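Batch queue: ligand-bound targets. Current item pairs a single chain with zinc ion. No template structures supplied; prediction is de novo from sequence plus SMILES. Inputs echoed for audit trail.
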Amino acid sequence: MNNTGNTSQNNLQVFSWNSLPEVLKSILPQNYSYLIENFNELPSYRTTESFIIPQFELDVFVDIDNEEKAREWFMAFESKSKTTMPKTKRYEFKGKHVLFCEMRHCIHSDKVKKKQGSREINRQQSSWLRNTNCTSTIHLRLERWRIELSHPLEVNIKFTHNHVIISAESLSFRRVNEKVRERFLELFKDGHSPASAMYTHEDELYLSAADEQELLLLLADRASNPDYDYIFNLFRQYRQDSLGDRNGSAMFRRLAEVVNDYNNSGKGRAILQEYDSRSGKAFILCVVTGLMSRVHEKILQSSEICYMDASASFEPLNTSITLLYTSCAVGALPFGLFITSDELEITLEKALNLLKSILPQHSFYGRGAQLGPKIFLTDDSSAERNALELCWPESIRLLCTFHVLQAFWRWLHNSKHYINKADREPIMQKMKEILYAPSDLEMHKYYCEFKQRFYGQYSISSITQTL
Ligand SMILES: [Zn+2]
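Prediction returned. Tokens below.
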């Protein structure tokens, strides 16, 4: 047995890596020499993406005499050949004559169970991990008796991939190209979020690729197309470096610059009050865009009615956004908005006064910023209503009927007020009649009926107080 092996190897030609045929150079690791027993070139395969994949069978011996080096060689092989070949069968080391033995199939083979969820698989990679019933295999075997020979490690390769062999696995671990990293920083500077920067960058890759082959490579390669985690972390780092804390002084300096640029752009106007916890100054940012300015100028209803509504819980600092708008035939149209760090009356009053200072001359259809619109419609918020009264004392403040009825409905159903269940519905009905009465006279009539029917039973004064 020993002798046969020895003799057969002696008859084989030793190739330094440099002297290998080109096709083998492209897959076999450098810095080793090879004893080729069998090299059988097969007709090459054309993938659906028009990649030409060389096909061959190779039986070869490598100058490696221990398991550790054999594993090293295999890793170099995966990297060099851009293939991913997971282990598919564990051979029993029968007796002591086998030191190392592994059978591996291509990741696109049906022999390989795809480990979903073991690592985040991104959009591009998932299509690369599809099963194409690839038949490519590699078999490594190191037998004890061969160790004395010049080339002990036996390798049998069936290079019969039926798909693009550039492996998403290996490409997805590549370091992100420095130029790509800089491009992302540029996108962040232009105001992109991590997600929008990722989409913009992908679009750029689509445009830059000369053909489909190049595009596939660019998309799968982490060096040119980093994953979302990388982009998100880069963004966090960028924000930390350039803006500091969300509430830090660097952030407000940057915001002041943005406001300044906006005011110089001619697109609209904005004004800022910096947050200062020591002096108790709330954060306020008021904006009147070009569109808002035109609504003041062109829409008749601007002089008549202004709705004011605040919403919050949009971001981690939970700032409140208050929108002022009017309504006309096309629906709601905006007048202006302000963002505040709280909803206290003193903050809202300051915010409204700041907003007044940036309203256009022709605001409220020519009534002007000082006079304001005829009517304000608000939620049942005393802070809002009081602030409006201080800033626009001439205007009438109304509650929206929806909020009035809602508040009344809650009052009726509150057990503290001892309203009989059976009475709740008729009281609500009467309340609606009063609210929707088309004239003073009728309203008075409904009010009297209301008193007559429920007087004595309940303290009417407490009911009417809620109106
Ligand atoms: Zn394959």
